[in-house]
Amino acid sequence: MSEKLGGNILVTGSNRGIGFELVKQLAEKTGAGAHIYACCREPEGSGAEALRNLATQHSGKITLIKLDVSNEDSISAAVQAVSKQIGAGVLNLLINNAGVNKPPSPATLSVTGKKEMMEVYETNVVGPFLLGKMFLPLLQRAAEKDKGDQMSCRRSAIINMSSIISSIEKCSDTFWMAPVYPYRTSKAALNMLTQCQALDFKKDNILVTALHPGWVRTDMGGERGKLSTLESVDGMMKVMSSLSNKDSGLLLDWEGKRIPW
Q1: Are 135 and 75 in contact (CB under 8 A)?
Q2: Residue 165 belongs to what H/E stretch?
Q3: Are 229 and 137 in contact, with CB atoms under 8 Å apart?
Q4: Which listed site, 110, 162, 177, 228, has its alpha carbon 20 to 30 Å from 214?
Q5: In terms of Cα–Cα distance, which of 37, 69, 35 is closest to 51?
Q6: How many CB atoms neighbour CB 182 within 10 A?
């Protein structure tokens, strides 16, 4: 059964691509009581102009937050800023969307080194880990406020943006089209983080699910992507609205289909 998204929602990497479209559709499709915390590295920079305009269009519903998910001090400052604004309130949904792919595709083995591996891992895995850890009290408070054992994104949840190319089982089908060592291994690690969080937070009735947005036409996905950001996010919004206990700890695509580990 679908349950409309709402409450306090935080989206990382929200100034472009999938993150921007997530904030846009959340602002349009959630009720008056919803509030979106749109996070990006430079909310006052030229790269966030569209996001600032969107916040103006939905005055009072979107708050821009400075956040570099590769920097622990920045994460701590963002958590404090959001917590201060929420006050005695709760955080209902954390969407870990920010991600990087280094070096640029095709990112062959010969041009990939320790530096790229560590930078991608720091953003794609450590960032979501720290955000989940630091926002846990607000997520727990959200779950406690809504009594019962039914999990949902409306109640209290973490969505980790993963990818089909994180799948070890399907690697032989996808490797040659995208032999990106850092991105693949970081997203596989993010899947494990998702499973660990799902098991650990089950006692708190916090849902944790990984989503594959599809091959999307973005700066990262390239012009050959099969989906627009609108199509991808529209699908993921429907999936997130329908998630429940049975989906916690899984990797699903934008249509709700399960992807093997």
Answers
A1: no
A2: none
A3: no
A4: 110
A5: 37
A6: 24
pLDDT at 151 (0 to 100): 97
- Pick from 127, 11, 132: nearest CA to 73: 127
Contact status, residue 190 vs residue 249, Cβ threshold 8 Å: no
Tokens of 71: 């920097």
Q: What's the pLDDT at 1?
A: 41
Rounding to the nearest 10 degrees, give the CA dihedral for residues 239, 240, 241, 246: 80
CA distance 125 to 12: 13
Q: What pLDDT is attached to residue 193?
A: 98
Please answer whether residues 158 and 197 qualify as being in contact, where contact means their C-beta atoms are separated by less than 8 angstroms: yes
For the chain, 261 residues long, the average pLDDT of each consecutive 10-residue run is: 83 97 97 95 97 97 98 98 97 97 87 96 98 98 91 98 96 90 96 98 97 83 78 97 98 98 94
Tokens of 106: 């095709």
Q: Yes or no: say if 101 and 163 are a contact pair by the CB < 8 Å rule.
A: no
Query: Tokens 């994104």 correspond to what residue?
Result: 153
Torsion of CA 51, 54, 60, 62, to 10 degrees: -40
Q: Of the candidates 70, 72, 98, which has an alpha carbon nearest to the alpha carbon of residue 13?
A: 98
Alpha-carbon distance of 126 to 193, in angstroms, equals 9
pTM of the model: 0.96
Q: What superfamily in CATH does domain 8-253 come from?
A: NAD(P)-binding Rossmann-like Domain (3.40.50.720)
